[in-house]
Amino acid sequence: MKISELSQESRDLVDATSISYPDTTLLRRINSSIELLVSKIIQNCKNYPYDDENFGNIAQGTITLEEGVSKYTITDRFLDILEMKVKNTDGYFSIVKPVTQNEDSNIVETEEAQTGFPTKYRILGRTFFLRQAPGASYVTLTAGLKFSYTRTSYQITAADLASGTLIPGIATPWHITIAKMVALPYAKQYKKDRVRQLERDIRDEIYGKEGLIVFYANRQKDTNNKIVTKLITNFR
């Protein structure tokens, strides 16, 4: 469902028009509805992380390291770090593991003066600390750290709404759910007789046996299907 179709569906559900339900309000509620659904998707993805393809890039970033410096700040907006890797002097990446709660996490005071190949990191907000601090004889400094992360939904703009061609970044069966979520606040104010049905539909479409959460929780990574030959003993 294109954003133009979703917008029209939202209005149709409550007999609204572009005058009674203006684009500015509609857009705000579309974004908040998608963001809420994406938060539920991220919490329930078991096999591989969700990402909104409307961003147009991969949820990865790199940082140039500095000799003997353990503290760095990630400028990208993210919800969680999925993986962090450091490149050695031969150009190969190795995984840097997060410090666990049972470990000594005071990396700054105890490890910053020590240089070597980082094997651990601790993150606070958008700032992280490496243990050990990178040394040029151990790591490639330029773009030497690579990280992947989860992020929230793409924020649809007024220009996107005007062009009408953008497609929300969740599975298509639940685009109608977005429209119902956008229609609901309007219904609560102007079409109270439709509130209960909208709420029931939204709940079932998200939490039901064939709902959004079940779908994303059970998606599988690509697998190679093997062709297996079977001996037929009763062939005539």
Main sheet summary: 7 strands, mixed
Q: From the helix content, strand content and strand pairing, which structural class follows? A: alpha+beta
N-to-C span: 54 Å
Low-confidence stretches: 223-236
Strand order of the largest sheet: 1-9-3-4-6-7-2
- Secondary structure: helix percent: 25-40%
Number of strands: 9
- Provide a count of the helices: 7
Return the average pLDDT rounded to an integer: 88
Q: How would you summarize the topology of this molecule?
A:
Blueprint: H1 3-12, H2 23-44, E1 60-63, E2 71-73, E3 80-87, E4 93-98, H3 107-111, E5 115-116, E6 120-124, E7 127-131, E8 133-134, E9 145-150, H4 158-163, H5 175-190, H6 195-207, H7 212-217
Parallel strand pairs: 4-6, 5-8
Antiparallel strand pairs: 1-9, 2-7, 3-4, 3-9, 6-7
How does this model look, in words?
- With 236 residues, the chain is of the alpha+beta class.
- The protein contains 7 helices and 9 strands; from the N terminus they run H-H-E-E-E-E-H-E-E-E-E-E-H-H-H-H.
- The protein has helices at residues 3-12, 23-44, 107-111, 158-163, 175-190, 195-207, 212-217, and strands spanning 60-63, 71-73, 80-87, 93-98, 115-116, 120-124, 127-131, 133-134, 145-150.
- The strands form 2 sheets. A 7-stranded mixed β-sheet has the order 1-9-3-4-6-7-2.
- Strand 3 (80-87) and strand 4 form a beta hairpin.
- Helix 2 crosses helix 5.
- The longest helix is centred in the first third of the chain and has 22 residues, at 23-44.
- It is elongated and about 70 Å long.
- It starts with a helix and ends in a 19-residue tail after the last helix.
- Mean pLDDT is 88; it is low at 223-236.
